[in-house]
Structures are given as C-alpha cells and as structure tokens.
C-alpha cells in the first residue's frame, strides 16, 4: 500500500478492510518516515504491531 492511501484510510469514516499477511487489521497510525504503520487485529485482541505499509493490502482493490 502507498503512503497516501494509508493517510486516506486513516482520515476516512468508512470501514475500509485492510489485511496484513492475510489477517484483517485496523491501521492505528502512520509513522513519520512514511514506511511503517502501527496496526492491531480486528476483534477482541488489542495487541499492536509495527509493520511496513508495503505489506498492507486493501481488500476489494
């Protein structure tokens, strides 16, 4: 995924499905370097991970 699309998703009120390694995640924030984001799994677990945005996929695109 590109940096601009991550910013669009973060500012959107729509529920946009994003996956990381086949698992549905929420994007919490984009890091200042524009290459990494903090995400957490959709669902009851709130564990956060830092991932490369190039590894994020928007479902349906």
UniProtKB/TrEMBL annotation:
Transmembrane segments: none
InterPro entries reported for this sequence: SASP_SspH
UniProt keyword Aminoacyl-tRNA synthetase, yes or no: no
This protein's UniProt keywords: Sporulation
Cell compartments where the protein resides: Spore core
Pfam families per UniProt: SspH (PF08141)
Major localization listed first in the record, in broad terms: other
Any one GO biological process: asexual sporulation
Highest taxon of source: Bacteria
One GO cellular component term: endospore-forming forespore
Keyword Membrane: no
Family the entry assigns: Belongs to the SspH family.
Protein name: Small, acid-soluble spore protein, H family
Biological source species: Metabacillus lacus
High-level lineage: Bacteria, Bacillati, Bacillota, Bacilli, Bacillales
């Amino acid at each position: 995924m590109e940096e601009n699309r991550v910013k669009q998703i973060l500012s959107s009120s729509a529920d946009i499905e994003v996956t990381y390694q086949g698992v549905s995640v929420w994007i919490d924030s984009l890091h200042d370097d524009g290459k990494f984001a903090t995400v957490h799994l959709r669902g009851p677990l709130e564990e956060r991970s830092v991932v490369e945005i190039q590894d994020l996929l928007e479902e349906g695109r």
